[in-house]
């Protein structure tokens, strides 16, 4: 139904352009396929912490399907509102998932002596909180700016929310790129170094695409403010559909595709892919491994029921004991090691 054929008093859902039916079909098919792929990867690797990616892909797929419904029947208001919500939220879900993956990459690769603020520029135990909270705050401000909470807060707060998210996305991209660069100098296993480099580069590329989308969101909010102020639509952003696809939907597709190609669940050990990152447990495991791994032939032994205060060379101690009780000091095979 064209906009001109709408019943009297019904506003067209897309007042400045006619959305493409073909693009909506392609979008629904692509994002539905990505949903299936991410669900299969999630089940295969049991990386339950990556559950936000299939949720984001599913929302995009459903949003595109509802967009088709709105295109064919513009008089339906409910599908338009639901579609707008489903197509808006995945950006934040994807960003939060990337931040979570970056935090786990830090705990997987960074040596204990480098796991500090001076090296990482953020405390590793609070990296997710520091980056995720402003992202959620940006969504909240945007929701308030749209008047969904029963009062009109104005479009300025809508723009503030978009700017906050854009800055967080750009900061995240810089931190991941820097981490990928400096981690090359750390003394870690070559296989782990290669895997962490691949993950770091994929996260950096994903961060770039998320940042591009964040910039687009700021420009959209600015165009909306200009429209309300001047009552005239700004060119391109509000009057044409292609910027929405190029700078909004395409970056989300790129992030979902990159994550599926370099799936973090295929790289991380099992202790890092649970729903919750137990940093205290990780630190305890590191201490246990250090305690259970004596260096060379030197370790602490127990004498008379209490641990000796000095490390003892076990090989030399055994030779000395045999020499004392068996009088074998003259035997060349039992000489003290150098």
Q: Can you characterise this structure?
A:
Helix content is 64%, strand content 2%. It has 338 residues and is mainly alpha-helical. The chain folds into 3 domains: 10-88, no CATH class; 89-262; 293-334, no CATH class. The strands form 2 sheets. The protein has a two-stranded antiparallel sheet with strand order 1-4. A two-stranded antiparallel sheet has the order 2-3. Strand 2 (302-303) and strand 3 form a beta hairpin. Helix 4 packs antiparallel against helix 6 (127-145), helix 6 (127-145) packs antiparallel against helix 7 and helix 7 runs antiparallel to helix 8 (190-230). It starts with 20 loop residues before the first helix and ends in a 12-residue tail after the last helix.
In short:
With about 350 residues, this protein is mainly alpha-helical. The protein contains eleven helices and four strands.
Low-confidence stretches: 295-338
The average pLDDT score comes to 82
Specify the number of helices: 11
N-to-C span:
93 Å
Provide the gyration radius in Å.
Answer: 29 Å
Helix-strand topology string:
HHHHHHHHHHEEEEH
Strand content: under 5%
Number of strands: 4
Shape: elongated
The side-by-side strand order for the widest beta sheet comes to 1-4
| Major sheet | 2 strands, antiparallel
As for the number of domains, it is 3
Strand pairing plus helix content: what structural class?
A: mainly alpha
**Considering DSSP H and I runs of 4 or more, what fraction of the residues is helical?**
55-70%
């Amino acid at each position: 139904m064209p906009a001109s054929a709408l019943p009297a008093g019904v506003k067209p859902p897309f007042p400045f352009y006619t959305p493409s039916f073909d693009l909506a079909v392609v979008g629904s098919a692509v994002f539905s396929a990505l949903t299936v792929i991410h669900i299969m990867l999630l089940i295969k690797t049991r990386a339950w912490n990556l559950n936000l990616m299939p949720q984001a892909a599913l929302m995009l797929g459903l949003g595109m399907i509802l967009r088709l419904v709105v295109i064919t029947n513009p008089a339906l208001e409910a599908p338009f509102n639901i579609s707008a919500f489903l197509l808006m939220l995945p950006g934040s879900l994807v960003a939060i998932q990337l931040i979570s993956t970056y935090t786990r990459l830090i705990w997987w690769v960074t040596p204990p002596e480098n796991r500090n603020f001076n090296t990482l520029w953020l405390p590793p135990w609070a990296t997710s909180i520091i980056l995720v909270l402003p992202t959620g705050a940006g969504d909240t401000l945007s929701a308030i700016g749209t008047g969904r909470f029963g009062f009109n807060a104005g479009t300025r707060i809508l723009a503030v929310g978009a700017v906050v998210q854009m800055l967080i996305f750009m900061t995240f991209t810089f931190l991941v790129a820097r981490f990928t660069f400096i981690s090359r100098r750390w003394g870690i296993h070559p296989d782990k170094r290669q895997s962490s480099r691949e993950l770091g580069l994929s996260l950096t590329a994903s961060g770039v695409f998320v940042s591009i989308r964040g910039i687009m969101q700021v420009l959209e909010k600015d165009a909306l403010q200009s429209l309300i102020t001047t009552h005239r639509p700004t060119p391109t952003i509000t009057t044409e559909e292609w910027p929405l696809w190029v700078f909004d939907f395409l970056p989300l597709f790129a992030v979902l595709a990159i994550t599926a190609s370099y799936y973090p669940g295929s790289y991380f050990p099992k202790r890092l892919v649970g729903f919750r990152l137990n940093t205290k447990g990780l630190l305890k495991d590191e201490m246990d491994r250090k305690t259970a791994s004596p260096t060379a032939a030197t370790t602490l032994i127990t004498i008379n029921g209490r641990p000796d205060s000095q490390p003892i060379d076990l090989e030399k101690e055994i030779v000395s004991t045999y020499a004392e009780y068996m009088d074998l000091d003259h035997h060349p095979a039992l000489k003290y090691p150098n």
